[in-house]
Amino acid sequence: MRPIQVFDDKMEGSKAIARHIAHLVKRRREEHKPVVLGLATGSTPIGVYEELVRIHKNEGLSFDHVVTFNLDEYYPMRPSSQQSYSWFMHHHLFNHIDVPAQNIHIPDGALAKNHIPAFCRGYEAAIKNAGGIDLQLLGIGRTGHIGFNEPPVSADSITRLVSLHPITIEDAARDFGGISFTPTEAITMGISMIMQAREIVIAGWGPNKAAIIKKAIEANIDEQIPASYLQTHPSVKWVLDKEAAAELSEMTVHTDA
Ligand code: F6R
């Protein structure tokens, strides 16, 4: 995949990402090796998961050697709640493929607050024990967040409890039936763990993301634009639809694509 790929629509972009992931999963299986995927939630990856489920069902791709680590979870949040990212992942992906339950890792939004730091240290240790993340899938928030690393955030931030930005709360409020029911905190992997992934694929669809995507790719690296840290990653691919890419300068698209 090239560093910036622009597709006519999100369906095409999602299929390209799914094929790329499927290829890695297949290759590792042939090598009899596990593969560690860092996964995102939200509206952006839904089409990717749909296509991976289709490839599993129609083409027989097995995920039984796949280990997954999700980026984040709202806090407080019971995993069984339909608004949890745990529920989201099972509904859109895990319930439909053969990934072993013990290989699935999602931050626990039901912990007592004083247990969160130790949980976060354990989460990072589990990623390292699994061999590190081979491929990290990301979306981008309108604040420029990746995971729930809201601005300002430092490059060495670790997995931790964070406060959500008011814009992020506003965007999430649709799923919670209003701002007053929306969590204001989350547990998220930090920038430092995201940047350690061997490969990063970040997707963006629709006009609402165009302005922040331009900043993340074309502005200087800045703690106020968390996704701008990706500029220093050796293997990052932006997969965009035309609307999300609309504000990129011609130079960026043509130089990189
Ligand atoms: C979700 C996550 C977030 C989302 C971002 C975009 O696990 O880490 O960074 O990727 O908020 O959300 P959507 O895709 O709903 O626009």
Name its key features:
single chain, 257 residues, alpha/beta, 7-stranded parallel sheet, 3-stranded antiparallel sheet
List the secondary-structure elements in sequence, H or E: EHEHEEHEHEEHEHEHEH
> Which band does the percent of strand residues land in?
15-25%
* Cα radius of gyration in angstroms: 17 Å
Q: Please identify the structural class as seen in this structure.
A: alpha/beta
Q: Rough shape?
A: globular
What is the count of helical runs? 8
Task: List segments where confidence is low: pLDDT < 50 over at least 5 consecutive residues.
Answer: none
Strand order of the largest sheet: 1-10-9-6-2-3-5
* Main pleated-sheet profile: 7 strands, parallel
The rounded distance between the terminal residues' Cα atoms is 9 Å
Proportion of residues in helical segments: 25-40%
Mean pLDDT: 97
Q: Tally the beta strands.
A: 10
Q: Bound compounds, please?
A: fructose -6-phosphate
What does this structure look like?
The chain is an alpha/beta fold and 257 residues long. It is 35% helix and 17% strand. The chain is built from 8 helices and 10 strands. The longest helix is centred in the first third of the chain and has 21 residues, at 10-30. The chain is globular and about 45 Å long. Bound molecules: fructose -6-phosphate.
Short description:
The protein is an alpha/beta fold.
Task: Produce the secondary structure layout.
Elements: E1 4-7, H1 10-30, E2 35-39, H2 46-59, E3 66-70, E4 72-75, H3 85-92, E5 104-105, H4 116-129, E6 135-138, E7 160-163, H5 166-176, E8 185-188, H6 191-196, E9 199-204, H7 210-218, E10 236-241, H8 250-256
Parallel strand pairs: 1-10, 2-3, 2-6, 3-5, 6-9, 9-10
Antiparallel strand pairs: 4-8, 7-8
Bound molecules: fructose -6-phosphate (F6R).
Fructose -6-phosphate binds next to loops.
